[in-house]
Amino acid sequence: GVESEFVMMACVIAGYTTSLIFPVSALAFYVMAACSGMGFLRVCLTMHTQTSFREDAQQLGLVCKHCGAARNFGSISAMVVPVTLYHQFGWTAVCIGGIAVASLYLLLATIQHISSPSQEFTLADSDAFDCGPNGHPAE
User: Is 119 in contact with 54 (CB distance < 8 Å)?
Assistant: First the structure.
């Protein structure tokens, strides 16, 4: 549910912070890698879409079409941006970038959670309005 994403993103922030504090420690790198894996954005993106548009199936379908492109863009960015930051500015920039993105996500998720607490949904609800792998609503 929604509360689990706060824990996931806190883990991401903790992982990047650990690697920022101990930049030459292999253990800190492993902690950062494990914690980064907690921030699985595909699930979170679907959850926020469903939370925002669960009452309007037509609008949800339109948004799901755009979600496919957003997921692809996010996947490509996740591969390109850290490498570019590292080559241009070093490991510190990668860590600060990861912390900044996870913090922004937490801020936006908090705003959505506060503005629509009654639209909480569970995993069981997600089957009815699932954005499939191509961004289209699941049949």
Answer: yes
